[in-house]
Amino acid sequence: MTLYPAAPPVARIDLSVNPKPDVSGPAQEVSMAKGYWVSVYPDISDPERLTTYDKLAGLAVQAGGGRVLSRIPSRGGRVVAHEAGITQRVVLIEFDSFERAVAAYESEEYQKALVALPDGYERDFRIIEGVG
Q1: N or C: which terminus of the chain carries fewer CB neighbours within 10 A?
Q2: Phi-psi category of 33—alpha, beta or left, where left has phi over 0 and alpha has psi -120 to 50?
C-alpha cells in the first residue's frame, strides 16, 4: 500500500550541447533610480552671506558625483510659482543614485559646508529618489 503518490520524474538537462551560458553579447544594464537634493530657501535677506556655504557645498557635491540641474534665481532664471510656491532660491542637484545622494550629504566635505550656513537661514532640504 502506497501512502504518498510517486514523485514526478526529474527533468534532466543535457549540458553537453552548450555547457556554459553565452556571455559574449551586450551586457544588461541595471537601471538605478537617481537621487536628488532639493533645497528651497523661503526667505533670503542677504544672499552674500551664503558665499562660503556655496563654495564648500559645490565642492562636496562635485566630489560626491552630483550635478546641479537648476539654481533659481540664476542669471535671469524664470520661475512660475503656483499654490504656496516659492520664487526665492531653489536648488536641484542630481546624483547617479539615491544612495550616492545620501552619502554626499553625510560626507565630511558637506558637513563642513553645513557649518558655514549662516545663522538664521531657513531652508527646506530633502533627498528624494527619482523614478527608475
Answers
A1: N
A2: beta
Tens of pLDDT, residues 79-121: 788 888 777 788 999 999 999 999 999 999 999 999 999 887 8
Percent helix, strand, coil in the chain, to 5, is 25, 20, 50
Residue 67 has phi, psi (to 5 degrees) of -130, 125
Dig out the grid coordinates for 39 from the structure. 533645497
The answer to whether the beta carbons of residues 119 and 88 sit under 8 Å apart is no
The pLDDT tens digits of the residues spanning 69-80 come to 988 766 567 778
Q: Which three cell numbers stand for residue 48?
A: 552674500
